[in-house]
């Protein structure tokens, strides 16, 4: 797990050096992706690269290398790091300037960094084997551009830490109107009376690739009722099931929120049905 990619070169992590004048370091001025791969196969790669391009465009940057080159680099990094259960972290910052000045500098080259890290094995759709997650909830205090997968993650870090400090796995967030946005590093789904619900995309949440894959898979299958619509705090509190989705977790069942059981306090049947479908179809996208 030691070979990283930096600006066109593959090298040992310890030898990868970036200037302290890099705007990623000084301003969090960059876009990132986390792409899961199992035994050499990526999940949702096309979606991740499309979101990367949209994120760069949203901060006035062009994709610095063609898609196929980026794809080849990701594959090479997976191969060089043993093709196990790997997350690929890919980070493109605006680059290194000679001075610290807020406006976008012209004529600097973006910094492209990627490394591989171990992730848990592919989730198995089995209620007895999956971890039941615990969460707390709080007011979403991040910025108005949560749809951009920015490397400026302090707002998310502070929310994640809120839960972590209380010994739970995640922090679920509600906007000022009392509606669900997402969690500090995951999207959120609930189940009520057999219907799967998740909030619509807007500036308040990341367009998660796992969320997108799950919705596409549910749509194609057509057997599990679902709706994309605003979800109130009361609906989350009354939910039969709550799920967290992210690239490294796929669909994670929540069994406790704010020290109270979610539904019956056990992993639910709808989770089993959804994760079964997801596991069977995730490589098709
Ligand atoms: N987190 N919302 C936020 C705020 C996230 O940071 C993430 C991902 C998600 C889920 O997106 P996806 O399904 O594309 O992974 C939702 C990544 C994994 C991270 O920052 O490590």
Question: Could you outline the blueprint of secondary structure elements for this entry?
Answer:
Elements lengths: L2 E4 L2 E4 L10 H5 L2 E9 L2 E2 L2 H14 L8 H14 L4 E9 L17 E8 L14 E7 L14 H12 L4 E5 L5 E4 L3 E6 L2 E4 L10 H13 L4 E3 L4 H5 L3 E6 L3 E8 L2 E2 L7 H13 L4
Parallel strand pairs: 7-8, 7-14, 11-12
Antiparallel strand pairs: 1-2, 1-6, 3-4, 3-5, 5-6, 8-9, 10-11, 10-13, 13-14, 14-15
Helix pairs in contact: 5-7
Bound molecules: N-(5'-phosphopyridoxyl)-D-alanine.
The site of N-(5'-phosphopyridoxyl)-D-alanine (PDD) has 15 residues, from helix 5 and strand 13.
Short description:
This protein is an alpha+beta fold.
Question: What can you see in these coordinates?
Answer:
- By secondary structure, this protein is of the alpha+beta class.
- It has two domains: 3-118, Aminotransferase class 4, branched-chain amino acid transferase, N-terminal domain (D-amino Acid Aminotransferase, Chain A, domain 1); 133-284, D-amino Acid Aminotransferase, Chain A, domain 2 (Alpha-Beta Barrel).
- Helices cover 27% and strands 28% of the residues.
- It has helices spanning 23-27, 45-58, 67-80, 154-165, 209-221, 233-237, 269-281, and strands at 3-6, 9-12, 30-38, 41-42, 85-93, 111-118, 133-139, 170-174, 180-183, 187-192, 195-198, 226-228, 241-246, 250-257, 260-261.
- Strands 7, 8, 9, 10, 11, 12, 13, 14 and 15 form a nine-stranded mixed beta sheet that branches.
- Helix 5 packs across helix 7 (269-281).
- The longest helix has 14 residues, at 45-58.
- The protein is globular and about 55 Å long.
- It binds N-(5'-phosphopyridoxyl)-D-alanine (PDD).
């Amino acid at each position: 797990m030691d070979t990283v990619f930096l600006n066109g070169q593959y090298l040992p992590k310890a030898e990868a050096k970036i200037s302290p004048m890099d705007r990623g370091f000084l301003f969090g001025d960059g876009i990132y992706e986390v792409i899961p791969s199992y035994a050499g196969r990526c999940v949702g790669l096309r979606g991740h690269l499309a979101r990367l391009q949209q994120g760069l465009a949203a901060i006035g940057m062009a994709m610095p290398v063609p898609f196929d080159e980026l794809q080849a680099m990701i594959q090479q990094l997976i191969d060089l790091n043993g093709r196990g259960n790997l997350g690929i972290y890919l980070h493109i910052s605006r680059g290194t300037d000679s001075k610290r000045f807020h406006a976008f500098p012209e004529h600097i080259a973006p910094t492209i960094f990627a490394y591989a890290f171990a992730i848990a094995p592919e989730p198995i759709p089995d209620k007895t084997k999956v971890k039941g997650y615990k969460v707390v909830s709080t007011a979403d205090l991040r910025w108005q551009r949560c749809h951009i997968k920015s490397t400026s993650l302090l707002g998310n870090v502070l929310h994640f830490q809120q839960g972590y400090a209380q010994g739970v796995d995640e922090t679920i967030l509600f906007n000022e109107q009392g509606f669900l946005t997402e969690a500090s590093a995951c999207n959120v789904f609930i189940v009520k009376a057999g219907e799967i619900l998740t909030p619509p995309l807007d500036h308040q949440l990341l367009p998660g690739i796992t969320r997108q894959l799950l919705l596409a898979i549910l749509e194609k299958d057509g057997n599990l009722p679902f709706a994309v619509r605003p979800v109130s705090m009361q609906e989350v509190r009354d939910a039969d099931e709550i799920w967290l989705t992210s690239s490294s977790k796929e669909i994670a069942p929540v069994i406790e929120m704010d020290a109270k059981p979610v539904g019956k306090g056990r992993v639910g049947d709808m989770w089993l049905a959804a994760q079964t479908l997801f596991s069977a179809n995730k490589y098709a996208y």
